[in-house]
UniProtKB/TrEMBL annotation:
Protein source organism: Billgrantia bachuensis
PANTHER family reported in the protein's UniProt record: ALDEHYDE DEHYDROGENASE
Protein name, per record: Xanthine dehydrogenase family protein molybdopterin-binding subunit
Organism placement in taxonomy: Bacteria, Pseudomonadati, Pseudomonadota, Gammaproteobacteria, Oceanospirillales
Domain Aldehyde oxidase/xanthine dehydrogenase a/b hammerhead as annotated: residue spans: 225-309
A Pfam family that the UniProt record links to this protein: MoCoBD_2
SUPFAM superfamilies to which the protein is assigned, alphabetical: Molybdenum cofactor-binding domain (SSF56003)
Length: 751
């Protein structure tokens, strides 16, 4: 606090800001542009022609535009999929710019890795709860640079010193003379000035937008009145809808098909067979004038499938294999001390097995993608989360240069990781269908639409996992050894990220949260088995490996506390002496939940309980206390969840609260209902009737408390998920004495 931070010249490398606008940039109006924006504008769900951009000899790194009417347009390199990224990025710019928040707008940036790379992993994309964390100084610098140029333009116009000029709410003022001008009035003049080589960022004590509770989300109005444009809304002239028939088993191929009945459906235009690949379906697609006709046509297809090379195991068989592997030594992820010796003759030994099923992402907007093919060119519109990989893989499929693949980012109706597919499966499927259509003489743009059933059965699930844990306590109840063996498919192997995420056969995302266990245990050993013969496509899911490691570790530590006859919060706290931020959220959640007070009893026959969990993921720290009621018949409900989060500087507190609330609901749905099962390789679930999401009556009361912090901001989109299930499981044990070690939880507990 109180220290002014100087940053290097913004024109340099990643994160820099360059003034490349000395020309018109938006529908004929003059203004200030920091960078170059080339993607077509999206207006009212259709394409508007892109305005000719600035000259190519200016190095672009676009984040800010200021129009002649004073509108501030922030170009977001990260996807808005409901998590509040657009609001957060705009807040950072507007804070340093001293903009009028009501005049700030956000647009998705085009695909360009060099300009818009995610500084966390060097590729353009949104994931790992990194959007605000990696953009914090970058976007603030862009805003501060624009402000400095506007001030310089005003100083030159009025013949005064820049130091005498102030900025507030989008107005530049010289108090001594009473002169003032809006951003729009100064934009053209500012665009002619050189970019300052150094700018000063605000002291946090001077923030007016960052940390404010009065900063409305930029996307709320459009999502309320229906004007927000998602892929499902977006249209192009002459566009056809494609609905594809996929095989029932992963890896099956088309032998033959009869499309006679499909072509009889009114509105159906054509039927095409499209090629698949090692990481995506092949199949047959129906092209139609509308989604209903395409869907009916797809359902009327008669297809013979070759299952000879398809995956054919069921969930029970996979889990049996995992159990067997858990009895064998695995690849070493962590080895500290002598676990074998500590486990040889413990005063108390805790042994527990945990089972985790496949989980679908189940975003409200299923996978979809709009493709327009041209000669040596491809234009794509979708909820684009993974620009670098999608652009590269589409270019490879088409045999064209990546720069000839344009990706326009629209709103996404949820993702939870699914739209950032490491193999670009549904995007390549859309392109493959468009290619097949073009070969049959159809030049129209093609929008691929997955039905809910396609989405549920489409693979790329959170991996099934099995954990075996053994903990040793000494005679004083001290935790002296922790051994954990995990079994599950690798998300990172076989992807572009394998080289820096997999080491010595260990995928870091498989063991995160346990390999770096925060609890101070003198002897810790973590091993991993990664079966490579399971043909179910898997992918990261909201909070990735933490989805299962937090559950096993926080349930195990709870068992240790009970065995040691110690309070679960006090037991954890004693083992977190080297981790003050873990302790901070644990202390706050215990205080706000009234942990030191007796839990209010239930009615006759009811048993009440509460449980706690604390976990770090994506550099954020979250602790949760769950309160439950168990009825006489063994049914139960989660009454209340108190959450404490330390995510560094709280850029948008309302967004943080919403993300914690949403993460808690998302995690509770998985704990109570979430399960994708296979029988002979066939996925059994299809829609929300058998892959259930949380119902309103199941949502508990949620209280969120944010730890005040001056640390750099960290993730909030995912960290609310991991602690919920173990907190609930520990609460159910407290109420019933029943330990839950398999997810999803049973509908009723033993009575």
């Amino acid at each position: 606090m109180g220290i002014l931070k100087h940053v290097p010249a913004p024109a340099q490398a990643a994160g820099g800001v360059v003034n490349v606008s000395r020309r018109r940039f938006l529908q004929g109006s003059a203004g200030l542009v920091l960078g170059l924006y080339l993607a077509p504008l999206v207006l009212n769900g259709s394409r508007a022609d892109a305005q000719e951009g600035a000259e190519a000899d200016f190095e672009p790194n676009a984040f800010v535009r200021i129009a002649a009417d004073g509108t501030v347009i922030v170009l977001a390199k990260h996807l808005e999929m409901g998590q509040g990224t657009y609001t957060g990025l705009a807040t950072l710019v507007a804070e340093e710019l001293d903009a009028d928040w009501s005049r700030v707008r956000v647009e998705g940036a085009p695909a360009d890795t060099e300009r818009y790379k995610n500084l966390a992993f060097g590729l353009q994309g949104t994931g790992g709860s990194t959007a605000i964390a990696n953009s914090y100084e970058q976007m603030r610098t862009a805003g501060a640079t624009a402000r400095a140029m506007l001030v310089a333009a005003a100083a030159e116009r009025w013949g005064v010193s820049a130091e005498e000029i102030g900025v507030s709410q989008g107005v530049v003022r010289h108090e001594a003379s009473g002169r003032e001008a809006g951003f729009g009035e100064l934009a053209e003049a500012a665009a002619e000035l050189p970019v300052p080589q150094e700018v000063t960022l605000k002291d946090p004590e001077d923030f007016t937008l960052i940390g404010s509770l009065n900063t409305p989300r930029t996307d709320s109005a459009g999502k309320t009145d229906g004007s927000a444009v998602f892929t499902q809304d977006f249209t192009l002239p002459g566009m056809l809808i494609a609905v594809a028939a996929h095989p029932r088993r992963f890896g099956a191929r088309v032998t033959s098909f009869d499309d006679t009945k499909a072509r009889e459906v009114p509105g159906v235009v054509d039927v095409v067979q499209f090629a698949g690949g090692p990481h995506r379906f092949e199949g047959v697609a129906v092209l139609a004038e509308n989604t209903w006709a395409a869907s009916r046509g797809r359902d009327a297809l008669e297809i013979e499938w070759d299952d000879s090379q398809a995956f054919s195991l069921g969930s029970d068989e996979i889990m049996a294999r995992y159990r067997e592997l858990a009895g064998q030594e695995g690849a070493m992820a962590t080895q500290n001390g002598d676990v074998a010796a500590a486990l040889a003759e413990p005063a108390t030994l805790i042994e527990a097995d945990y089972e985790f099923p496949y989980l679908a992402h189940a975003a409200m907007e299923p996978m979809n993608c709009l493709v327009e093919l041209g000669d040596e060119r491809c234009d794509i519109w979708n909820g684009e989360q993974w620009q670098s990989m999608d652009q590269q893989l589409v270019a490879q499929l088409l045999g064209i240069a990546p720069e000839n693949v344009s990706l326009t980012q629209l709103y996404a109706g949820g993702s939870f990781g699914r739209r950032a597919n490491p193999h670009s499966d549904f995007v390549l499927e859309a392109v493959s269908i468009a290619m097949a259509a073009r070969e049959q003489g159809i030049e129209a743009p093609v929008k691929l639409v997955w039905m809910r059933e396609d989405d549920t059965r489409g693979g790329y699930y959170r991996p099934m996992n099995f954990h075996r844990g053994r903990l040793a306590l000494d005679a004083d109840g001290q935790l002296v050894a922790w051994h954990q063996r995990l079994v599950g498919q690798s998300i990172m192997m076989g992807t572009a990220m394998e080289s820096f995420m997999v080491e010595n056969g260990v995928d870091a995302t498989s063991v995160e949260g346990v390999a770096n266990l925060a609890y101070d245990v003198p002897n810790l050993q973590v091993e991993l088995h990664t079966p490579e013969d399971i043909g179910v496509p898997i992918q990261w899911w909201r909070s990735v490996g933490h989805t299962h490691t937090a559950f096993s570790t926080e349930c195990l530590i709870d068992e240790a506390a009970v065995a040691a006859e110690q309070d679960p919060v006090a037991f954890r706290r004693a083992l977190l002496s080297k981790h003050p931020r873990h302790r901070g959220v644990l202390d706050l959640v215990a205080e706000k939940a009234g942990w030191d007070q007796p839990l209010e009893p239930g009615s006759d026959g009811q048993r009440r309980g509460r449980g706690v969990a604390v976990h770090e993921s994506f550099s954020s720290f979250v602790a949760q206390v769950a309160e439950v009621t168990v009825e006489e018949d063994g049914s139960y409900r989660v009454d209340r969840v108190v959450c404490a989060v330390d995510c560094g500087v709280a850029v948008n507190p309302d967004v943080i609260v919403a993300q914690m609330e949403g993460g808690i609901g998302f995690a509770l749905a998985a704990a109570l209902h979430g399960e994708i099962t296979l029988e002979e390789g066939v996925v059994q679930q299809s829609n929300f009737n058998d892959y259930e999401v949380l119902r309103i009556n199941e949502m508990p009361t949620v209280e969120v408390h944010i730890v005040p912090s001056t640390e750099a901001p960290t993730g909030v989109g995912e960290p609310g998920v991991p602690p919920l299930a173990p907190a609930v499981a520990n609460a159910l044990f407290d109420a019933s004495g029943e330990r839950l070690r398999k997810m999803p939880f049973p509908r009723r507990l033993p009575v």
